[in-house]
Write a structure and sequence with these properties.
- By secondary structure, the chain is mainly alpha-helical.
- It has helices at about 1-25, 40-45, 55-65, 70-80, 85-95, 100-120, 130-150.
- The radius of gyration is 17 Å and the shape is globular.
């Protein structure tokens, strides 16, 4: 039975990583006019290095109604939920990540590599708020793993 559960977790993790890769790198983002920019110009116009700038914009939009509600909700909750499973899978598969400190450092390195890869490949942009929300989501997943799956 234990082996069957492990196979199920490996298969679900593989499927999750496949879907995550599609969402992060192949989700039909068309940069249009940005395609003609130099790399530094692209970084300047597409990146956000100011913490909570995007998050506060979306929260204000929810309360003011000046934006279609789908946009802020999908962005805020999508970024939170996107990496929540990683908080369960990583400590399950990598035993050294059972402590929150080692998990957090490892996850933030992985996330930084993803954000930089998105920027370099022009398949997305670096947004510190995405980083913050993704990290919170993974930490929520880590707490779920600790509470329900740690045994």
């Amino acid at each position: 039975m234990k082996k069957l559960i492990k196979i199920g977790l490996v298969l679900s993790f593989t499927f999750y990583v496949f879907i995550l890769t599609i969402l992060l790198f192949f989700s039909g983002r068309n940069n249009g006019w940005m395609a003609d920019l130099t790399f530094l110009e692209y970084i300047k116009y597409s990146s956000n290095f100011v913490p909570f700038k995007t998050i506060s914009t979306y929260i204000n939009a929810i309360f003011s109604g000046n934006m279609n509600l789908d946009i802020p909700l999908k962005n805020l909750f999508g970024n939170l939920l996107m990496f929540l499973p990683m908080g369960i899978y990583l400590p399950y598969f990598i035993k050294r990540l059972k402590r929150i400190s080692s998990f957090s450092v490892t996850f933030m390195i992985i996330l930084l590599v993803i954000e930089i890869t998105q920027s370099i490949s022009r398949r997305g942009s670096f947004d510190i708020d995405d980083f913050i929300l993704n990290t919170i989501g993974a930490l929520i997943g880590f707490e779920v793993w600790k509470k329900f799956f740690r045994r």
